[in-house]
Amino acid sequence: MTRNLAGDFFDLMDRLGPFEPQPRVAVGVSGGPDSLALCILMKAWTDRVGGILLALTVDHGLRHDAAAEAAQVGGWLAARGIDHDVLRWEGPKPAAGIQAAARAARHRLLADRCRSEGILHLALAHHLEDQAETVLLRFAKGSGPDGLAGMSPLREAGSVRILRPLLGLSRSRLRDLLEAAGQPWIDDPSNRSAAFARARLRTMADLLAGEGWTAARAADTARRAGRSRAALEAATARLLAEAAEVWPEGCVLLRPDPVRAAPDDLALRALGRCLASVGGARYQPRRDAVERFLRSLSDGAPPRGATLGGCRIMPRGDGRLLVAREARAADERIVTGGGAALRWDGRFLVTVPSGAAGTVAALGRRTCALPKHLERLPAVVRETLPVLVREDGGVGFPRFDFANEFNIQDESGTGTAIGVVFAPPEPVSASAFVVV
Question: How many helices and strands, by DSSP H and E, does the chain display?
């Protein structure tokens, strides 16, 4: 390994700290040159700080050679003393939007494995040119500061911290590292397919550079936009602290007066965060739809209800707005044999006790005796909570305990309770965008 590259990587990792003693890090590795270089660099860093490294490959089951390639990656990494495992995307695949679905499945599988292993840090191999492509693609779609900030080198994502320590390193430097180390790699043919926008951009790299659009310049644009985004997000957090009350049952009570009084951009961000969180979405709803609702708040009339981003917004008698999940959107059904932790409806982490087989689904309007802690909830909130419908017909109701002591009988006595924690991918109180 070249000394300069290792030193640069160590410096980048130091900026993403501080880290706990003996940090545990997982790396998502496809077998391509970028992720293999990240594995080698991360192995050097974890050895240096006394940490532990686990490499994870996701087999999406979309290509005939995928399983053999994953095994090949495991062999390469084992020779370097790096533990490796393969995660498989099981179940039916969508006919349309397969690339986005595969990306979402990959992130879910990696995050779930990290959580089960107690690993806090998940490192991904996006590099300088990836950042440049991201900025250009978002610019083409008319993005503002949030989009032009590109990818953050550090993002809190529920139970894991997403690290992208290669964003300041070029693709050529990473390949030089592999060649110097005698490490082969796997070329994914989709990276050259004209069907994908990023591949088309790569064929235009020289033309764009001739007009002054280099990867380094794109990274500078991302850094400046990132500073603006971080400042806006900090201001939005202050507004939400004043206006929003987040319930562990997955809803938000919102005071409209602070939202009305805020500058439009902050108000839109605050509303968008509430909707994304309650809706279990990774991204905020379309800005034009949120703008229409904000105008309805600012016209001087009493607040009106709306359906937006998979959520219902309803005025309450005390003047506040209740933001709750839309019942028809909470339609996921997950069959489980018990003894598992799973994510339901994108919003909740559900712990099912061992031996409690059944289907995790929305409570809906089931006609059964309810425990008191559910009776007290607004019906629109209660009906979109997960329950375990047992094979014997009993219903295991959610308990919002945080001590993980869920193997208890629910208050109705009709079934074993399930543990439920509201953990959306984009929480209302997310940390601000990180710029290093």
Answer: 15, 19
* pLDDT at site 101: 84
Is the domain of 145 the same as that of 255?
A: no
Task: Report the 10 Å Cβ neighbour count for 46.
Answer: 22
Tell me the DSSP string of 113-124.
HHHHHT--EEE-
Annotated binding site for ATP: 30-35
Count the domains in the chain.
3
Whole-angstrom distance, CA of residue 258 vs CA of residue 237: 12
Q: Which CATH number covers residue 50?
A: 3.40.50.620
Element (H, E) at 387: strand 386-390
Domain final position from 303, 327, 351:
327
Write down the residue that tokens 């007009």 correspond to: 211
The tokens for 108 are 């879910």
DSSP secondary structure, 49-117, as one string: HT-EEEEEEEE-S-STTHHHHHHHHHHHHHHTT-EEEEEE--S---SS-HHHHHHHHHHHHHHHHHHHH
Kindly give the interhelix angle for 264-279 and 287-298, rounded to the nearest 10 degrees: 120
* 29 in Cβ contact with 57 (< 8 Å): yes
Cα separation, 318 vs 320, in Å, equals 6
What is the distance of C-alpha 419 from the center of its chain?
Answer: 21
- The answer on 292 and 176 residing in a single domain is no
Annotated binding site: 30-35
Structural domain that includes position 299: 233-327
- Is residue 430 situated within a structural domain? no
pTM of the full structure: 0.81
Give domain status of residue 210, yes or no. yes
Domain boundary, last residue among 219, 254, 274 = 219
Residues 407, 262 share a domain: no
pLDDT digits (tens, 9 = 90+) for 322-365: 999 999 999 999 999 988 888 899 999 999 998 889 999 999 98
- State whether 18 and 59 are in the same domain: yes
Please tell me what DSSP assigns to residue 399.
E
